[in-house]
Amino acid sequence: MHSEVVRSSDSTRPWYRDITASQWRVLVAAWGVWVNDALDFLAITFVLGDIARAFGVSLDTASLLLLATYGVRWIGGLAFGGLSDRIGRKIPLLITLTWFTAGAVATGLSWDFLSLAVFRLLLGFGMAPGFSLGAAMVAESWPERHRAIGIGILDTGWGVGAIGAALAYEFIYPTFGWRGMFFVGLPPALLLGLFIIIFVPESAAWKEGRASSSKLASNNPVRQLFKRYPGRVAYLSMLMFVLCFGSWPFQALLPTYLKTLDLPASVISAIAMASAAGQIFGFVASGFIAERLGRRLAISLMIGVGSACVTGVVLSAHSPAIAMIFSFLSGFFLVGSSGIWGTILTENLPRDVRASGVGFLYNFGVIGGGLAPFIVLSTINRLSLSMALGIILFTVVAAMAGMVILRFARETKGIDLSQIDREA
Q1: How far is CA 79 from CA 94, 122, 345, in A?
Q2: H or E element that contains 233
Q3: Range of the structural domain that residue 128 is part of
Q4: Model confidence over 405-423: pLDDT tens digits?
Q5: Is residue 372 part of a domain?
Q6: Residue at 41 is within a domain
Q7: Distance between the two ends of the chain, CA-based, in angstroms?
């Protein structure tokens, strides 16, 4: 009888009261790294045209800078993930924060297109584990029943970083030009680094795994990932690639498309911030949706609705108020669905290869995001299509492909991470 009363009381207890101060600090640290990651990366989406003019290259060539950044992230994800599985989560998180912040500053100091491309490659290598390490830390520290919520909140950092990039475009760009956009993340990165050093504990799950596994020191987590789970790695790689590809025609090309309409910078910034605000709410909601509907159905529903909303924002761009509504909804559903990706990845991989696996899979997927803008721009140039049609077409087709692939995913709602470890 007493246990029934306790369960009844627990069921009415607000979820956030189950999270300890230490667990909140882990989330804040991971979230802050993801904010800075987004801020430093997304700044370039507002100034691709400026960079093309400054260095005398075409717009589709300038868009390859996104691919340069994303194309090497899988290498960084494996390198930092393997390091994290060996020495812990905290130190690699500090290294990645320092690395991609330095890469952004170097971008602003570049002297020609080649040096700029090299700096974006370096930034991509360093930013690779920004989300995957944070997702592993949150998954390993938060209670199982709130794991998807925690990772969803973590992903709001991308939306906040997007707002920061839009504000920088409105207030920094007019005075300091495109170069000034890449220095904005330096002050918050310094403060965040101090916070991680002083207040964030090492993952208890990682320490437990190191203490209980005599093989951990001798086995290479990266080698074990591909040797023991080749089918799982192949499927999740394909899933992440398609999902990332589907969201990036909208994320990367919307500001550029709006600039072709000769809209004022304040209007472009407002529409972009509407999307970023939608992302924040979508990332938070995605965790609750995933806990209610399951991981597969939640993502399918969100990308399906989101792709329709992208069509709305592109077609209504000349009516800023309507475009802002559709932009908010696009951010909420399409980009917000990625708040569930980290949950699926962490729940499909055992502890000893979790950071390596999430680091590789997530960052292999974003190669699709890096390819999407170049493929859209190249296709519309070759076929003489409008940029609006290109964004809509590739977004909708990728969403449909993602929904088909998700039908074959393992549903991991309610699975305890220790169960995944035992299965391994």
Answers
A1: 14, 13, 17
A2: helix 230-260
A3: 21-203+220-423
A4: 999 888 877 776 666 666 6
A5: yes
A6: yes
A7: 38
